Amino acid sequence: MKKISTWIGFILFLLFSSYTLNALNLPFNFTASSVSAAASVTSPNENHDIARINSNGQHLLSILDHLDVEHHWLPKQPIHWATGETDDTEKPLTSHCSAFVAAAAAANHIYILRPPEHPQMFLANAQYDWLQTKGRSYGWNLLNNPWQAQSLANRGYLVIAAFKNQQANKPGHIVIIRPSNTAYMHITDEGPHIIQAGMQNYNCTTLQTGFKHHPGAWVSSQNYTVLFYSHKIDNIK
User: Superkingdom of the source (predicted)?
Assistant: First the structure.
């Protein structure tokens, strides 16, 4: 009975509001669509302006594409970290994500932990720790969210996403954010676009796909454990 009285009161309030606004010659259109439109104006989506790819982003794309990751740093092959070519002096590992990131950084004259300072085995976990402890002194900056990560990549910054496996004897994963004019909602659901070496190498895919073998790394933009870092590239204007 109390609920019915509440609803009757609410309906009377709406009728009174409509009458008052009409008397004042003001528009009143209380519909589901108007409520939805009002909500969209104040949506958090509006707080994330993703930069479009500029000339610096295009230059970064050309460098990343030139590495030809889908034919180098191949999984289960012994490779040289810097070239991704077969190197029989190395051990064949399940994947070479961290070696590829180190090579891409080196191609842009940027340092991230790499051989010989650390072997390829479990290098991604070590890079994650290194970024947190020493990365800033080498020019790496921790980012706030995946939209910022995509935006900076589009402006020509080298941006990475790193995940540490909490089991010491299990590998982590690390990827590069690929410049892409992707939509806000796409990032919300699947994360930024990336380029990676891994159990499967991708020249272009989503963060969600890249980290699918690492539970909890990325569920959505509101639920993820990867860390995003950026480094300015010298040619950026």
Answer: Bacteria
Domain ranges of the chain: 2-45, 47-231
Q: Which two tokens stand for residue 11?
A: 């309906």
List the end-to-end C-alpha distance of the chain, in Å, as a whole number: 68
CA distances from 233 to 50, 104, 111 (A): 19, 12, 11
User: What are the beta bridge partners of residue 144?
Assistant: none
**From first to last of its 237 residues, what are the pLDDT tens digits of the chain?**
544 454 445 444 444 444 443 443 433 333 333 333 322 322 234 446 799 999 999 999 999 999 999 999 999 999 999 999 999 999 899 999 999 999 999 999 999 999 999 999 999 999 999 999 999 999 999 999 999 999 999 999 999 999 999 998 999 999 999 999 999 999 999 999 999 999 999 999 999 999 999 999 999 999 999 999 999 998 776
| Distance in angstroms (rounded) separating the CA atoms of residues 110 and 138 | 8
**Rg of the chain on CA atoms, in Å:** 24
Taking the complete model, does pTM exceed 0.85, yes or no?
no
As a whole number of angstroms, the distance between CA 188 and CA 184 comes to 6
State in words which class domain 47-231 has: alpha beta
Token duo for residue 76: 């289960």
